């Protein structure tokens, strides 16, 4: 069986399981029923964080080499603001990085990076957790990181506006 067929079967099984037994904090579905490699994700803002009450859509894009290579996740909410999310919405978290040496990112441990044994649920739970606990050692959005450290009150205000916008979009 080719890697891409195995990946497609694995993704179908994981989607089926997540639809049958939903996990608190997110929901999933396909962007297009004919493409198992592109998923719609709705992340719920975690309780006791500035993101609480928000609903943040994202796309989870799986490579044809899945599970050998990690998916990419991008928030589609305009202006999503978080130290570990690029301005274009792309999520920067170790679990979504290939397990190979990176000369520009020495603080990231290989054990924290993508491994084929990890599933979609682990990825999404890690992203939900990241909203509660940003990684300041490797910020993707320097401005958000600086604001959260130096002016947490202003950061919280900005996130609460984002939450209200996300609620209005429903």
UniProtKB/TrEMBL annotation:
Top-level taxon: Eukaryota
Gene Ontology molecular-function annotations: ATP binding; transferase activity
Keyword vocabulary terms for this entry: ATP-binding, Nucleotide-binding, Transferase, Ubl conjugation pathway
All copies of domain UBC core, residue ranges: 6-168
List of catalytic residues: 92 (glycyl thioester intermediate)
Signal peptide feature range: none
Pfam families for the chain: UQ_con
Annotated InterPro entries: Ub_conjugating_enzyme, UBC, UBQ-conjugating_AS, UBQ-conjugating_enzyme/RWD
Annotated family: Belongs to the ubiquitin-conjugating enzyme family.
Protein's name in the database: UBC core domain-containing protein
């Amino acid at each position: 069986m080719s890697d891409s067929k195995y990946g497609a079967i694995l993704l179908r099984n994981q989607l089926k399981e997540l639809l049958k037994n939903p996990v608190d904090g997110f929901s999933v579905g396909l962007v297009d029923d004919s493409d198992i490699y592109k998923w719609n994700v709705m992340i719920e803002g975690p309780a006791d964080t500035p993101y609480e009450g928000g609903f943040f859509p994202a796309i989870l894009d799986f490579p044809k080499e899945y599970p050998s290579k990690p998916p990419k996740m991008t928030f589609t909410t305009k202006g999503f603001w978080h130290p570990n999310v690029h301005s274009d919405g792309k999520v920067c978290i170790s679990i979504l990085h290939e397990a190979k040496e990176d000369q520009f990112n020495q603080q990231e441990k290989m054990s924290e990076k993508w491994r084929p044994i990890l599933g979609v649920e682990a990825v999404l739970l890690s992203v939900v957790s990241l909203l509660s606990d940003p990684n300041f050692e490797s910020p993707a959005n320097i401005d958000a990181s600086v604001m959260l450290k130096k002016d947490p009150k202003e950061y919280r205000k900005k996130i609460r506006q984002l939450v209200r916008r996300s609620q209005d979009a429903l």
